[in-house]
Amino acid sequence: MTIAFDGKKAARNRAGLGNYSRFVITALARRFPDVRFDVYVSRKGDNGLLRPLMELPNVNIRYPSHPVLKYFPRLWERYGIVRELRRHGADIYHGLGNELPANIRKAQGTHALVTIHDLIFLFFPHTYSWIDRHILNLKFRSACRKAERIVAVSRCTARDIVKYYFIPKNRISVAYQGCDPRFREKCSESVMEDVRKRLSLPERYILSVGTIEERKNTALIVRALPAIPELSLVIVGKRTAYTSYVEATAKECKVQDRVHILSGVDTADLPAVYRMADVFVYPSRYEGFGIPVLEALCSGVPVISATGSCLEEAGGDAAIYVDPDSVEELTRKIVQVLTDRTLRNTMVRKGYVYSSGFTEEVLADRLMEIYRQCIDSSAS
């Protein structure tokens, strides 16, 4: 069997869809050593993030062979990949980042799948320019129509695809995301202390991880801080225009000295940052899955998240969920987790158990099951 992947995000994105792509390819290649995995990348210079994949014996990086298209990467991604699929052969082509080549149906004998992560641009249209929103909608809608099967990263995303793109439920399969195995590993005291000093972390803190943007609703945590004087708030994520609002909210609440915003944190330091937190809070209004919730559960940190999207899938019965508009409820739950040792221990224990269902092996097995269903359905 040969499985082919769109490698654009794996080669160029350090976080988000890049992490997902590399995680999926690595998990499958390790789990199924007898299967060949081809990763299609438009430029040979995009090798830095791919090096770990290139070391796997059953993974091949495929570059443009066309003498002209190799100079036009976007054109190759839209049309040239199908030519390569015909040349090298593939049972499955999986678009890992919400899109498929425009002519994918011409790849005869290859079953096309696409992973749809979320439809954020439809729920928060004002955070995108008109042209970006229009392009994303066209790409997503086209990919959903052309794919033989759609892989949704949560049941919530699957429902959104049915609702907004009128895709039959029987063409959608849910395969949850996983997180880097390093979050399951213990951190020594010396490592944690080193990270604390280098990042100037406070002794006790609430942690929130993710791009600092409006839908993440980080200001809600800031508004809860005045009632929790013993803790600071550490926010790890890329700054956006919303960051100014978070900082203004901190000044308004007179807690600016207790709010620490860290951007560009090395992923190797993140497990220690999680493990030193007193509680992880993620009151996002909308997510496709919510990997930070899973990272926190793997790290042994109690999680408080929000109702309304997929986060109850990411955290299961191990987390506590609050109304994303209620400062009072969030404050009450943070205080409860900090003061009720029995509750805290139960949440940590449940977190380890629940997160064990999101390992590399579980994801790889689920995706391979979906691939084989596609192949078997055409043979019957």
Describe the 3D structure.
By secondary structure, the chain is α/β, with parallel strands linked by helices. It folds into 2 domains: 2-178 and 359-379, Glycogen Phosphorylase B (Rossmann fold); 181-357, Glycogen Phosphorylase B (Rossmann fold, 3-Layer(aba) Sandwich), CATH 3.40.50.2000. The protein has 16 helices and 13 strands. It has helices spanning 8-12, 17-31, 51-54, 73-88, 120-123, 130-146, 155-165, 189-199, 219-224, 242-252, 270-275, 291-298, 311-315, 327-339, 341-355, 360-379, and strands spanning 2-6, 36-40, 59-62, 92-95, 111-116, 149-152, 172-174, 205-209, 232-236, 259-262, 279-282, 303-306, 320-322. The strands form 2 sheets. A 7-stranded parallel β-sheet has the order 3-2-1-4-5-6-7, sandwiched between helices. The chain has a 6-stranded parallel β-sheet with strand order 10-9-8-11-12-13, with helices on both faces. The longest helix has 20 residues, at 360-379. The protein starts with a strand and ends with a helix. 44% of the residues are buried. The mean pLDDT is 94.
